[in-house]
Here is the input.
Amino acid sequence: MPKFWLISNRNVENGGFGTKLASLTFWTSDKSPLDDFSNWSLTQPDKFKAMLIAAADQFPKIDHANNERQSHVTLFVHGYNTGWQDAARRYQTLCEKLFTGSDSLGICVAFDWPSFGSVLGYYPDRAHARACAGDLADLLSELYDWLLVKQQAAINNPDDACKAKVSLIAHSMGNYVLQKAMATAWTRKNQPLLASLVNQLIMVAADVDNDVFEPLSSDTTDGNAIANLTYRITALFSGRDAVLGASAGLKHFGSRRLGRSGLPVEPPTGKDNIWDIDCSGFFPKETSGADVHGAYFGPYGTIPLMREILRGKDRGVLQTLGLTTGTLWP
Here is the structure.
């Protein structure tokens, strides 16, 4: 089975991915570095899906009492201001740290959307992100249908239960792509309340309104969609993030950035499956404000934290073990 998996709606040009929106294509690779386009092989959609299902079916069967050991199929959505090569490098880093070796969490699949890769292009990039969300919504809708089939199969025969959890890691404006995609998928499926699509969602430095989950916000419908399709949502944020400080200044529609300020203290969301973690202390004091935005994927305690979040460890246990508190700053 392939080691690396990629779904992209970028166009292909000059021996690489471009910055224009195109039809979905599916790619696999067994060879790094992943920022070398020649190391990726174009795969037919049906074959890609069949291989992914077969790979997940090879996961060990875990009884319910040990569900924290269950393997994952995790979708990673990169942020804005990211060319395809930067996105590929970040995806490879994530795979090397969380999805390889004896302690692997399972399989990670990259969803690569065509960010323009320009800070000055923030506004068009945001519009572009929204346009890209439709393809991700199609994938999430198809995945939801497949999970319902597996759920019914497990009812008929427990031996046919799904061996994988579905999780998501989204970074920066990738969270906005995900927000719009999940809202679309939730609407298409008639706003289901009895079946979760995603087990764990980690919103890393999320470039979305921090009141997205509030009942009276402008994004209430989107927030309800994410909350109802997800078992648990964890937002990792830092007030030291200068990139999101610039984002808030550009947007300035009355809401702060979730990835910079965390969830609002008041009013409460009323949703118990959402929490946030201030990660400022994980990054050394010499880490610049601009570098903080991507430092979550660096050699810091945020990676072990992500691992335990994805495992589904209780938030109180994570706090008691000290995994939610960094000691490198101030």
